[in-house]
Every structure is written in C-alpha cells, then in structure tokens.
Design goal:
heterodimer, B: Rossmann fold, 2 domains
Chain lengths: 242, 304
C-alpha cells in the first residue's frame, strides 16, 4: 500500500505542483501579505519571520491539495485511477503526501529569507519537527476542502479561500497572542495555524505563548481530525463524482 | 468458474433505480456484448463490476472475487477502458503507462517491457515521450486501451471503446479485441455500434430501464423478434400508415414490417399499391439486424 501511496504522490507532483496556482498561493501571496505588513512598520525581523513561515507553510500545503480531486473529476482521470487496485484511502494518502512534501520543502524559503535578514534559528530541531507536523496537518485540511463532490475547481477554491484568509488573521501572525484580548485568544486557539506560529516563534525568538507540548498535542489532534474527516467524506463523495 | 457472475445486483441514485435486480454470467474466454439505450444502466453496471461504485444490493464476482468484499483482488484481475476516461494530459504516454503499471504492483522493469510492447503494438511508441494533451482522440483511446492491458488482465471491461474514433483506430481496436479472444481473455463490451457487437460478440445482453431484457447469441436474438424476416418497402408517394395492416415501422421514407409470413405480406403490399395507384420503388426482404432486435426489445426508447 505504501508504494502505491508514493506512486499517487509522484503523479500529483508531476501533474499539479510547479504550476501557477502553487506559485501564486504558496509563495507570492504570503510574501505580499508579509510585505504589506512589514513596510512602514518598525518591527524586528525575528518577530516577522515566524509569521512569514507560518503563512508560507499554510498557503503552500493548502494550495494544491484542494484542487486535485475536482480537477481529476473534471479531466475524467479519476475513474481510470480508482478502477486500479487502490482504495480511496490510498488515493487520499498519496494526495496528502505530495502536499506534505511540497509544503515542507517550500518552508525553507522563509528560513532563507530570515537568514538573509540576519535572523538565526535557536531551536532548529523543534522547528523541523513543527514544520513536519504542521505540513501534514495543513495538507489534510487541504484535502478536507476538496471533499464536496464537485468538478468545479472554482467552487473549491472559493471554499478554501473563505476559510484560509480568516485563519491567517486569527492565528497570532500579525498580532502576538500576548497582545490579544481574551476573546481573541479563545478564537485563535481554534486555529491549527496558531500552534505552528507559536512553535515557530519559540524556535526563532526563544519564547512561546503555550508550552510547546500543548502546541504539538494540538497539531496532532487537528491532524487526526482533518485526516479522518477527509477520508470519511471522500469515501462518501466518490460515487457522486461520476 | 464463470469469468463474471452477477446475481440480483441493484443500484439507485436519489431514489431512482439505475440498475434493477440484474442477473447474468459471462463465460471465460467469451466476448460478451452489453447493449442498451442511453440511461439504461450500462455504465452503472460496468462501474459496479469494476469496483468503482458499490451496488446497493445483490452480488457480483469477477474471476471468483467478490467485488464488494474482495474489491482489491477483483480489481487486480480486470482491466478497464471506461466510457469517459482520459489519460493524464500533462504526463507523457510512457508516464501514464508506468503510472498504471505501478498501481497494479508490476515491477518497474517488467512494466517498461510491457509498456514498450503495447505502445508498439498500438502504433504510438514513437510518441511515447510526448505529453498526452497533444494526442488526437484516436491516439488517446489507443493509449487508454494500452493502459487497460498493461496489467495483462483476465477480464477486460470496454465501455464504448470505439465511440467517436476514426476508422483506422476503431479497426485497430476491434482487431485487438479479436486477438484477446484468441488469447482466451474475457471481454465485456459495451457499445452502441450494433455491427461491431454483432461481429465481435458470442453473446449479447440487452438492458433497458435498469432491467436485463434478454441474453442470447446475436443469431438467436435476430430470430426472436416477432418474426424471422423484415420486409422493407418504399412507394413513390407518401402512404398513410393506417393503410398498411401489418403494424409497420417508419424508417426514413420506407416502411419496415416484421413477419413470419413474407408471402402474404408481399401480396398485400402489391394489392395495396395496385388499388391505390402507388408504384413500389423498392422492396427488400432481409433478416432483422441486431439493431432491429435492439429497437424492438427496448421499445425504441432512448430516455436519459
């Protein structure tokens, strides 16, 4: 089964990654958001880089994964694929793996930007583990977006954008958690991105709002929830795609 | 053991029965034709038999593997050319073939050998490194056929494999189907091309409104419909259908009558022509075609 997951992931990378939407939503969007926030404000780079990392990882990991299922339905490649000896679970796992690899690799870009600005990583091991956990979590979320059985990519993109942008603003990227009012912290705690942002701040700035084990547990719980929901909903949606 | 065994299989979508308690079996090494009007339940049946969707009720086995309980095993022994499937347009023909070979668990080297051999056989080897988006419809369909054969399946499901193809590609695919029969492979062929089905299939099943109407050899089916002969007549002028006593069927500017008594019918037609000053421009007597059988058994319906 694991080799078939890799076959699906390799197909996804060839077919869907290194294309326009990935560049736009994965790298350019967080970069422009970052610049809009950064320019004209006297904020230390060590505060900004964790935010840029969080946005990049989030946008990259959720940029292509929602598009795969509706695209395959539209291109009429899904029926051919699912008539091979694979399960929906293998298919979903392959899509998540491709997104995970891409998200994790692209997260090196903001680290390089930080290094160019003189920002060093204080806890590289924590950062690497956090990136891996979060890339998986956000990739699963991306697959969850594509669960509605439609062949219209625009519908799925609308749904994912509707969720993604608010998440960016409530996750402690632009306003540190410690400066948020009580209701703000409560809202932020609902976002999985909050916990990665917190871990990225710990790795670069040396302090975090939550204890890091809480961040990891939260990411684990969200990952499991998104994965299980994605599997369940895609299994249910598959017959409606034809 | 039969290659395909279906017992009381049903499937509904939004309360509408697409396939209603269908039962049949396909022998090993047989080319089985599956006919029906649009919306009759053909593609739904194929999708259930290939493990793409699950039946609501009933059972089906492919080479002895239950398609619900043992879906993966069943999928391993079958190959599919789905009605509406495409190869990945941004992958090359070679990459598409190797993708399918990998998903069937075929070792890389063996997959490469089979891929090269099939692409050569279907005349697309020279374009193996071209992206599929630049292929013609005929080339794409030949590639889909190659993809279905790369796992060397025991049972092959072909859903409209020659639909919309140029003559050369359609002939090539028909020739390949004949060769598969020689190799004792089982082929489940869905088609709207009656001539193709009549030429290739040993038995034919006709489905209408989700129910299996009949299963028999094309020859037996031709003798089944209300008479063994079809008489086709064309007059020099339009004739009111009610003037003809034999429940004729309008076919273009001719009338077709199915009968077991051709002598009586021809005499009546001649008499009618003489009494009404009509000239017979054309009069043919022939055995009913498979298309006649199909139209008769499905009531000429073409409901979506």
């Amino acid at each position: 089964m694991s080799s078939k997951i890799w076959v699906i992931a390799r197909k996804d990378i060839r077919m869907y990654y290194f294309k326009g939407p990935v560049v736009i939503f994965g790298i350019l969007t967080p970069l422009f958001l970052f610049l809009a926030f950064y320019i004209g404000r006297n904020l230390p780079a060590a505060f900004l880089i964790p935010g840029l990392m969080a946005m990049t990882l989030f946008f990259t990991s959720t940029s292509v994964s929602p598009v795969i299922m509706p695209s395959e339905t539209q291109m009429k490649t899904l029926e051919r694929l699912i008539s091979c000896p694979i399960t929906v679970r293998t298919l979903i796992a392959g899509d998540i793996l491709a997104s995970f690899i891409f998200g994790a690799c692209i997260s090196a870009v903001p680290v390089a930007v930080g290094a160019a600005l003189g920002v060093s990583v204080k806890s590289p091991v924590i950062l690497i583990i956090a990136v891996l956990f979060s890339a998986f979590c956000f990739s699963s979320l991306g697959l969850l977006f594509s669960a509605p059985p439609t062949s219209l990519v625009s519908n799925i993109m609308m749904l994912s954008t509707f969720v993604k942008f608010p998440v960016i603003f409530i996750s402690g990227i632009f306003i540190p958690m410690e400066q948020m009012p009580g209701w703000g912290v409560a809202v932020a705690s609902l976002s999985p991105l909050t916990y990665f942002t917190d871990l990225a701040r710990f790795s670069i700035q040396g302090y975090a709002y939550y204890p890091i084990y809480v961040d990891f547990i939260a990411l684990f719980v969200y990952s499991a929830l998104f994965l299980l929901l994605a599997l369940k909903l895609h299994e249910r949606a598959l017959p409606k795609r034809f | 053991m039969e290659a395909i065994e279906v017992k009381d299989m049903s499937k509904s979508f939004n309360g509408i029965k697409a396939v209603d308690c269908v039962s049949f079996s396909v022998h090993r090494g047989e080319i089985f034709g599956f006919l029906g009007p649009n919306g009759a339940g053909k593609t739904t049946t194929v999708r259930m038999l290939t493990g793409v969707i699950k039946p609501d009720a009933g059972e089906a086995r492919v080479m002895g593997c239950d398609i619900v309980k043992d879906t993966q095993k069943a999928k391993e022994v079958l190959g599919v050319v789905p009605e509406t499937a495409n190869a990945y347009p941004d992958l090359t023909a070679w990459q598409n073939m190797m993708l399918i070979a990998s998903l069937y668990g075929i070792p890389r080297r063996e997959g490469e050998i089979r891929t090269a051999s099939l692409l050569r056989e279907f005349g697309i080897y020279e374009r193996r490194l071209s992206k599929v988006k630049g292929f013609s419809k005929g080339m794409k369909q030949r590639l889909i056929f190659c993809m279905a054969l790369v796992s060397n399946p025991e049972v092959l499901f072909l859903d409209e494999p020659t639909s919309g193809l140029d003559v050369q590609s359609a002939r090539m695919i028909r020739q390949m189907i004949k060769e598969l029969k020689e190799e004792r492979k089982t082929v489940f062929l869905t088609s709207h091309n009656m001539q193709e089905v009549g030429e290739l299939c040993t038995r034919v099943g006709i489905i209408n409104k989700g129910k299996m109407v009949t299963i028999d050899s094309p020859e037996n089916l031709r003798t089944k419909i209300g008479g063994s002969l079809a008489i086709e007549v064309r007059f020099d002028k339009a004739v009111d259908k009610s003037m003809l006593d034999f429940n004729p069927e309008r076919v273009g500017d001719s009338y077709r009558i199915y009968t077991t008594e051709p002598h009586e019918v021809i005499c009546s037609i001649v008499e009618l022509a003489m009494l009404n000053g009509l000239k017979i421009k054309n009069l043919n007597v022939h055995s009913p075609s498979l298309e006649d059988v199909f139209v008769k058994l499905t009531g000429g319906s073409n409901e979506q």
